Amino acid sequence: MATPSSPIESTPLLIERNNSLITREGSSLSPSETVVYPFRALGASDDPAGGRLNLKDSVSLFHDSLPVILSYILQNSIQTTSVIVAGRLGPNELSVAAFSMMFVFVTGECTSGCVALGGTTALDTLGSQAFTGGSRKTDLSVHFQRCVLVLWVLLLPISLLWAFAEPVLLAFGQSEKLSREAQDFLRVMIFGMPGYVGFESLKKYLQCQGILDAATSVLIVVFPLNLGLNVLLVHYTSLRILGAAWAVTLTYWLCFALLATWTSRSTAHSSHGTWGGFHFKAALEPRGCYEFLKLAIPGILMVGTEWLAFEIVALAAGQLGDVPLAAQSVIMTTDQILNTIPFGIGVAASTRVGNLIGARSALGAKNAAYASALLSVIIGSFVMVFLIAFKNVFGLLFSDDEAVVRLVSVVMPLVASFQVADGLAGSCGGVLRGQGRQHLGALFNLVAYYVLALPVGITLAFRYNQGLQGLWIGQVVALFLVGAAEFLVVWLGTDWKQEVLKGIERNQGEAKRQACIANEE
């Protein structure tokens, strides 16, 4: 823990907006180790009042978050493409593909394992703060390697669950045919998840350094290849629905391989000096792994509890019949695409807030957090209007069944109603991850979804015969509660100087552990 004399706001923070550079001198670095941070100087305002909503900062954040948003849209398109292509085989194939994809991400993010989006949220805290405040430039690469290795190990229980998913799905009341075909689909997906975890971890490693467009470039290249693989394997081989699973699996590994190649050849990356080679001993140091899991597990719960709630809605929709289940698949796939916008803003915000906390700028981190909240409200309002205006179109993109299209148009206004709240949950959730307070997001989700939303939604759906609409009314309640709670914590419940001190403590703890390992060698 830093002493009261540790430089927080007093540390010189030189900002040059024209060159989009932030330079920090002093702190724990020697004069010869001055670090240059290649991102826009968002939130680093010298305004002594601080903590004010600044439209210019929001515009700057939007500019920086665009490649992140695009990368998540393209990344989600990997699964969405498989759902659309498989859906053309018939309503049953649409249900199997969409249901299996939902099961993949729910079990991957909220059970005993730590994988993909949930587990890598630890890098939002540790990586971003280490990049600007670590004692050595290569501390960030140690965090990255630790993330990949720990998450790969923790994929094992998830793989077992997927390999024997049929009895689990049957226990939840799914049909024998859907359960059997979903299990076959999931068994193929087992081979793709290590590639997905590697890609997601490497993407976070680069984002922590302000390199936001690398993953986007890779995904732009991969997108047409993924589409071609899906069409080829689903419609021109005997694999049919399993062809979609193999297409996703191959695409995940291709993404990881291409991003690793880009990283190894990138001058933007090499100029930072953050890669110090492979250090498995340092990455697997027990105390370091414990500190990682302290953030990763709440991060899994923070992301996974929301996904699990939507999976429960999907399971409940399956009890309503084939048409509600197909409509739920369309609505959920659409919502996943749209959710990439607030989630992308949240990722950009978590990186920015974490970088500024690492750089010991409490005021800068505070302003960046407020800017992300303002931006999410503005964009959420536009998305809400868009969904209402085109509510009759979305069903046609996935299905030719008139009943499915009609039910989608009825439920879509409910989805539109929570877009602002979902935006706040995404941006403020990102701020909490940048601070290292993932546990609060997990707590809010647990209460909002499992104490209130799901009981309300299921009661409306089955007891009061509201069907799929009733289930989604419950989700609306949850998202409004989560968005409001996280916004209030960021706005009123954060001691920003204390968060800076926590960041100093994290970086100093990692430095001591690495020094001990170096001495042993």
Automatic annotation (TrEMBL):
<dbReference type="GO" id="GO:0016020">
    <property type="term" value="C:membrane"/>
</dbReference>
<keyword id="KW-0472">Membrane</keyword>
<feature type="transmembrane region" description="Helical">
    <location>
        <begin position="470"/>
        <end position="492"/>
    </location>
</feature>
<feature type="transmembrane region" description="Helical">
    <location>
        <begin position="147"/>
        <end position="165"/>
    </location>
</feature>
<feature type="transmembrane region" description="Helical">
    <location>
        <begin position="444"/>
        <end position="464"/>
    </location>
</feature>
<dbReference type="InterPro" id="IPR045069">
    <property type="entry name" value="MATE_euk"/>
</dbReference>
<dbReference type="GO" id="GO:0042910">
    <property type="term" value="F:xenobiotic transmembrane transporter activity"/>
</dbReference>
<dbReference type="GO" id="GO:0015297">
    <property type="term" value="F:antiporter activity"/>
</dbReference>
<feature type="transmembrane region" description="Helical">
    <location>
        <begin position="214"/>
        <end position="235"/>
    </location>
</feature>
<protein>
    <submittedName>
        <fullName>MOP flippase</fullName>
    </submittedName>
</protein>
<feature type="transmembrane region" description="Helical">
    <location>
        <begin position="241"/>
        <end position="262"/>
    </location>
</feature>
<keyword id="KW-0812">Transmembrane</keyword>
<keyword id="KW-1133">Transmembrane helix</keyword>
<feature type="transmembrane region" description="Helical">
    <location>
        <begin position="185"/>
        <end position="202"/>
    </location>
</feature>
<comment type="similarity">
    <text>Belongs to the multi antimicrobial extrusion (MATE) (TC 2.A.66.1) family.</text>
</comment>
<feature type="transmembrane region" description="Helical">
    <location>
        <begin position="410"/>
        <end position="432"/>
    </location>
</feature>
<feature type="transmembrane region" description="Helical">
    <location>
        <begin position="368"/>
        <end position="390"/>
    </location>
</feature>
<dbReference type="Pfam" id="PF01554">
    <property type="entry name" value="MatE"/>
</dbReference>
<dbReference type="InterPro" id="IPR002528">
    <property type="entry name" value="MATE_fam"/>
</dbReference>
<dbReference type="GO" id="GO:1990961">
    <property type="term" value="P:xenobiotic detoxification by transmembrane export across the plasma membrane"/>
</dbReference>
